């Protein structure tokens, strides 16, 4: 991370903690909800299947920038399906950097060739070993690994959503992250139980067991891009929600925290680690602050 970037985030963090501010810093643009997959745990694919036009996406990036966002995520649907006016997701990343975003990340299912060296991180969804990943995501595992092998940069971070189908495959994903060329780390979420996928949610005890495995992996020097100081809050869902420092924009609508903010009762069962990590950070949790600095400096 560049010194200027670090200083921007440090001063934002200090102001937010000291003055209990609610200004945003992290934002997500949903470029499309169209997707080539239909994963068992996902409630957000192909609802409209609209690919939002280039000019609209650019306007939405500017809206977030003007609101103070400096960490930008592109998400979907499948981001690599996004194309308009001769532009691809790679052009959006380059434009986001030119606009002044300090960190630009893309979330993808990894089923398309990966040529995205300008992104700080490519969060590539990996939901287990071959058997369990394919049980969640269809027969995609081998294609994804071929795409990772042929990727033009080493900025890939596995992104695992842990649920009842794949909860025993946390170690497999950790070791794959450690041992696969072009993969820098792994980051976890627990399943967030939307009304149509409630049955995939983990119990408190299952979450505790998964966190123990992740801690053991950290001890074994597996590159995990999460904060163990946040685990107790994540296991028991005792972190504050929503995250006021996070915004998402989809088809012109800006929401605080996630597009799931309008689903009744969901925030109390939120499984997104970033929400716990950011809300605890900005509440001034000292352990989280120290671990966040170390972790971000290591992987970005
Ligand atoms: C909605 S997908 C969009 C990007 C891309 N299609 C992908 O699969 O990575 C973004 C991430 O959300 C995760 N996800 C989807 N539904 C979830 C849920 N109910 N709880 C937690 N994570 C979920 C996916 O596994 C994926 O890692
Ligand atoms: S690839 Fe991503 S958007 Fe598509 S169904 Fe799976 S989780 Fe949902
Ligand atoms: S806290 Fe609520 S809005 Fe934020 S990601 Fe979790 S469920 Fe979605």
What's the layout of helices and strands?
Layout: H1 3-19, E1 26-30, H2 54-66, E2 71-75, E3 83-84, E4 87-88, H3 89-99, E5 103-108, E6 121-125, H4 130-137, H5 141-149, E7 156-162, H6 170-179, E8 183-190, H7 204-219, H8 231-236, E9 246-250, E10 253-256, H9 273-282, H10 286-299
Parallel strand pairs: 1-2, 1-9, 2-5, 5-6, 6-7, 7-8
Antiparallel strand pairs: 3-4, 9-10
Helix pairs in contact: 2-3, 6-7, 9-10
One iron/sulfur cluster binds at residues 35, 37-39, 42, 44-45, 76-78, 109.
Structure description:
With 300 residues, the chain is an alpha/beta fold. The chain has helices spanning 3-19, 54-66, 89-99, 130-137, 141-149, 170-179, 204-219, 231-236, 273-282, 286-299, and strands at residues 26-30, 71-75, 83-84, 87-88, 103-108, 121-125, 156-162, 183-190, 246-250, 253-256. The protein has a single domain (3-35, 47-299), classed as Alpha-Beta Horseshoe (pyruvate-formate lyase- activating enzyme), CATH 3.80.30.10. 38% of the residues lie in helices and 16% in strands. The radius of gyration is 18 Å and the shape is globular. It binds S-adenosylmethionine and iron/sulfur cluster (SF4) (2 copies). One iron/sulfur cluster is lined by residues 192, 241-243, 257-258, 260-261, 266-267, 270, 272, 275. Residues 35, 41-42, 44, 75-76, 78, 107-109, 125, 159, 161, 189, 191-192, 194, 197, 271 line the site of S-adenosylmethionine.
